[in-house]
Every structure is written in C-alpha cells, then in structure tokens.
Amino acid sequence: MDFDIPRIPLGDWIEGGLDFLTSEFSGVTRAISRTTQAGINLLNDGLMWLPEWALMALVILLCWKLSGRRLAIGALLGLSLIWNLGLWNPMIQTLTLVVIATLVAIIIALPLGILAAVSDRFYKVIMPILDFMQTMPAFVYLIPAIPFFGIGSVSGIFATVIFSMPPAIRFTTLGIRQVPKDLVEAADAFGSTRTQKLVKVQLPLSLPTLMGGINQTIMLALSMVVIAAMIGANGLGSEVWRAIQRLRPGEGFEAGIAVVIMAMLLDRLTQSFSGRKKGK
C-alpha cells in the first residue's frame, strides 16, 4: 500500500512572506534605495573626478606607507594593467560598491558581535543563524534583493551586505571573548563600568582579531559584488557577465584579472593595517 506524503509548501510560504514584506514596507525600502543610490553616485563621482594618475599615486603612497616598497610596486603594476585594459571605470564602480557594502556590514555586525560576546543567551541564538547564512549558496542572496529593491546596484549592495556580514560578527565575538580574564578582572577591580571595560580594555585588545574579520568581510563583499552583476550591479562583474553572454572569453579573463588585482591589494592593505595596529 502506497502512502502519499503531502509536500510541504515551503516555497509558497517564502513567496508569501516576501510579498507581505515588500507591500508593507515598500516606503522603507524606497527610502533605503534612494539613500543608497545617492551614496553610490556621490562616492563614484568623487572617485571618477580624480584623474587616473592621481588616484593611482594615492593608492601607491598608501601601500608604501602601510606595507612597504614591494606592495607599492605591485600596486603600480596592477593598477597600470587595469588602466591599460580599459577597465578603470568598472574598477571604480566595483570599489564603490565594495566600500559601501563593507561599511554597512561592519556598522551592523559590530554591535551584534559585541552583544554576542557579552551575552551567552544571544550567542547561542545567533551562532546557528550565522552557520545557516554562511552555508547558503551565494546566488540565493540575490533572490530576495530583487523584490525589495529591483534590478540595479542597490540590490547588489543589499545582497552583498547580508552575504559578507557573518565573518565580522564572528571575529568580533571571538576577539572580545579571547581577552585574558585577568585583565578583565583587573578592570573590574578598579571599578570600571561595563562600557568602560568594553571601550578601554576589551575592544583595544581584540582589535587585531576585529581587523581579521573586516578583512574577510571585504573579500566576501568583493566576490559578491561580482556575482551581483547578474541582477544589474555595475562594475567588473558586469564586464564578466557581458563576456559570458557574448561568448568572449578573452574579455572575461581580463575583467577577472582586474578583480584578482583588486582583491590582492585590498587584502594586503587590510592585513598591513592590522599588523601596524598590533605592533603598536
């Protein structure tokens, strides 16, 4: 005898939930979309206003200051190659999206990470959620972005923020929880309040770990911004996506190499900044 197990309408429930949220909070999402788009345009226009040689010189000087001659030479060669390939403007667009998405992700993640570090109850709640978020395929994050914000760069930033936020939360929690207990007890002995203990002891000592989380957030943001070209985000990702659609592998590899150069520079810069802070 066959038993027919009814299918759980999970997809219908999710679609219903998205429809409810988009209809009830349409005013909020429109305001967020306008504000985010204005920020994108402002930062992008500001970076575009600088001549290529001027922005390149600023990046090279920053690399020299934070890391030394090797990274500065690498930045010179890499940025010169991007400019020579005609990918300077898409690179600026990608950098704009990465900067905004990373800032938003960190602003949200730091308070959550601090709360998880000081509250065992909240820690037990948020860790399974972070596990779920980090095992979800990246493409899935593009789905809810479209009904909320439509096609374009704002949707790409929304998906990027959600995708890149978990490492910042985890590393913030880890850094604060790894502060030696004797130092925390010494702060308590001197009558420090919880806020003073957090600001003057726990956060400064956990800064190298926090910078590791920011580094991972930047790398994930860069990877997601490229994928977000599928829903209309501008930048190097759109160059790769256009090359795929037109069967032009050479152009796709050129844009991919530009993404790799950006990733290497951002990674080395954040690591160098973290190392300088740790040395101090």
Automatic annotation (TrEMBL):
Q: Which InterPro entries match?
A: MetI-like, MetI-like_sf
Start and end of every ABC transmembrane type-1 domain? 91-270
List residues traversing the bilayer: 46-64, 71-88, 94-118, 139-163, 214-236
Q: Give the similarity note.
A: Belongs to the binding-protein-dependent transport system permease family.
Q: What's this protein's name?
A: ABC transporter permease
Tell me the keywords, alphabetical order.
Cell membrane, Membrane, Transmembrane, Transmembrane helix, Transport
Keyword Cell membrane belongs to the record? yes
Organism (species): Salinicola rhizosphaerae
* Xref: Gene3D superfamilies: MetI-like
In which domain of life is the source organism classified? Answer: Bacteria
